[in-house]
Amino acid sequence: MKQPIIMAFNAGTAAHQLSGEPDEVVVDKALRTLAGAYPV
User: Fold this and answer.
1) Are the C-beta atoms of residues 30 and 6 closer than 8 Å to each other?
2) What span, in angstroms and rounded, lies between the C-alpha atoms of 23 and 28?
3) In the list 11, 13, 25, 31, which could disulfide-bond 21, CB 3.0-4.6 Å?
4) Distance between CA atoms of residues 33 and 3, nearest Å
5) pLDDT higher than threshold 90 for residue 24
6) Position 32 confidence tier, pLDDT thresholds 50, 70, 90
7) Contact between 21 and 30 (Cβ < 8 Å)
8) Given CA atoms 36, 12, 10, 29 in this order, what sign does their dihedral have?
């Protein structure tokens, strides 16, 4: 694979809050967080 990869980890209370959510919700939250950190 010759594509950039972003790997992120979540711990503590934030991880606990996301633990019951479906993958789509977790991915959406991660993408929105990245978009806020790296606006284009």
Assistant:
1) no
2) 8
3) 25
4) 21
5) yes
6) very high
7) no
8) negative
- Return d(Cα 8, Cα 30) in angstroms, integer: 9
Give residue-wise pLDDT tens across range 7-20: 888 899 989 999 99
Cα 35 from Cα 40, distance rounded (Å) = 8
CB 34 within 8 Å of CB 6: yes
Q: Is 10 exposed, middle or buried (0-12, 13-18, 19+ CB in 10 A)?
A: middle
pLDDT at 23: 94
CA atoms within 13 A on the CB side of 7: 1
Report the first-to-last Cα separation within the chain, whole angstroms.
25
